[in-house]
Amino acid sequence: MPSFKLDGREIPFEPGDTIIRAAWRQGIEIPHYCWHPGLSIAANCRMCLVEIKAERPVLMPTLKWDKEKSAFVPSDKPKLTPSCQALAVEGQEVFSKSEEASNAQKHVQEFLLLNHPVDCPICDQAGECKLQDYWETNQHALKRKHTEPVHKPKAVRFGPTIVYDAERCIMCTRCIRVSDEVAHDHVLDMRERGNKNEITVSPGRELDHNYTLMTEHVCPVGALTSRDFRFKARVWFLRAAKSVCTGCATGCNDFMDYDPRKNEVARIRPRDNEAVNKFWMCDDGMMTYRRVNEGRITSGVVRSGEAKLVKPADALAVAVAALGRATGSKVGIVLSAQHSCEDNFALASLGREAIGTDKFYLAALGGWEGDDILRHTDNNPNRAGALAALSLETGEAGKAGTVADLLKDVASGAVEAVIALGWASAEDASALAPLRSLKAMISLSSNVGALTEVATVVIPVASFAEKEGTFVNAKGIVQHFDRAVRPPDGVKPAWQTLVEIANALGKPLAFTQLAEVRHAVLQRTVGNTPAEQPSTLGKTEARS
């Protein structure tokens, strides 16, 4: 692979790479604002200027102070080049930290801060702001301007999700390019010139496409803020867990930012993975963190006439007793396209090995509006994984009935008890009313849903943010996600709860640890599907 030298370090590059992109692939950050690896090149911030050594260098005339003569004298200096535009060339030498390059970056930084409000204490970007970072590394000097700064509109509502502060904006145009190149909707543009420049929304429009939160995510300075996250948390108090979006079958990689002091998830950000979602997520995907707390089930529920709240362990005992009274071959097992491979595999194992049934069904959300960018028409993250987990036990790939098939079997008497994962179901509670008449309708759920509304026993289990697990997306890529927050007291992951049910039935499963479940799933489920593909493009910044 060809290479060049950057500040004395050999940097390999692929044909067509620019200097900044090749450096980024190696985890080296050349200071920049307008450049983004997923967007076209604008080269308007001039922060990424570098010095390129050449046999015949391009020199610029300048004046330098001569101490002996006490006067400025004619001189010259190398012409600097934006590294976001300059193509990498075999054998060339590039300097991003030379005296001239460092001076240029320092002066660009000072220029950008001339009219910038010093409102860091109330700015949501504080703690992950590139203006702060580069002031510390590339300027570290007080502002020399003492006149009144230029004032612009503040707290402008761009749409249902985004608020704009024109005084903070450095006109990097990343937000415009996201709308144009990712969302394919030219709803943002610039108006005016010079220090009166600002971003504006097209007349008669709002910023309301499906990727509006990406405009806020790529903003390097806090000019665009999310109305959902605005004034909610300070980023230095947050920790990040590597997760996978539960919004649809695309399985976008993300960071789940949570506050360990409150044990709460605060937001979701995209995590780079060129094989899956590149650098992006849709708005609905970024808002899936709300599912952690919406309709959260923290206590067991037993319905015998009126609903009664009990401890999770007591609900489990009632469920075991009910399963013990049912005929094993007439127990329906309802897997979930929303739950992890580990949860589904444990339930399939319970049904096949401990209960002895061959009646398997799959509950899933009914679908949403997809697009040709990221949004898959199947708004379930693990349909493929659930069906694959089932095939381990039945030996028949993907053979699972729908919830409608379950209702038919209930009506015919073929099913007299049900144990189900999750709240996800395309049917509403009224359509599932026949399930109330069963000997047992057991739901292992983290949130209230259609299945929990008709369940005779509800056992609370950990949500996707409260456990480790594995999803298989629509492309067949196996992706792991980590735990972010702790589950409520007494609440365990569904796979662990199912292991306890099997033990209580006197028919223990072949696994007791997460590693054992995962090993079985990965070894036997999708043996020929691609493994998880993390980003190979370079380090992921807090905000790219």
Task: Name the features.
544 residues, alpha+beta, Ubiquitin-like (UB roll), Rossmann fold, seven-stranded mixed β-sheet, five-stranded mixed β-sheet, disordered C terminus
Structural notes for this entry:
The protein has 544 residues and is α+β, with helices and mostly antiparallel strands. The chain folds into three domains: 3-100, Ubiquitin-like (UB roll) (Roll), CATH 3.10.20; 156-292, Alpha-Beta Plaits (2-Layer Sandwich), CATH 3.30.70; 300-524, Rossmann fold, CATH 3.40.50. Helices cover 24% and strands 21% of the residues. It is built from 13 helices and 24 strands. The protein has helices at residues 19-25, 99-113, 130-139, 174-182, 212-218, 283-286, 312-325, 341-355, 383-394, 403-412, 450-454, 494-504, 514-524, and strands at 3-6, 9-12, 49-53, 59-66, 71-78, 81-82, 93-95, 156-157, 162-164, 188-191, 198-201, 224-226, 239-244, 253-259, 264-270, 300-304, 306-310, 331-336, 360-363, 417-421, 440-445, 457-460, 469-472, 478-481. The strands form seven sheets. The chain has a seven-stranded mixed β-sheet, with helices on both faces. A five-stranded mixed β-sheet has the order 2-1-7-3-6, sandwiched between helices. A three-stranded antiparallel β-sheet has the order 8-9-12, with helices on one face. Strand 10 and strand 11 form a beta hairpin. Helix 4 packs antiparallel against helix 5 (212-218), helix 8 runs parallel beside helix 9 and helix 8 crosses helix 13. The radius of gyration is 28 Å and the shape is elongated. The chain starts with a strand and ends in a 20-residue tail after the last helix. 47% of the residues are buried. Mean pLDDT is 90; it is low at 526-544.
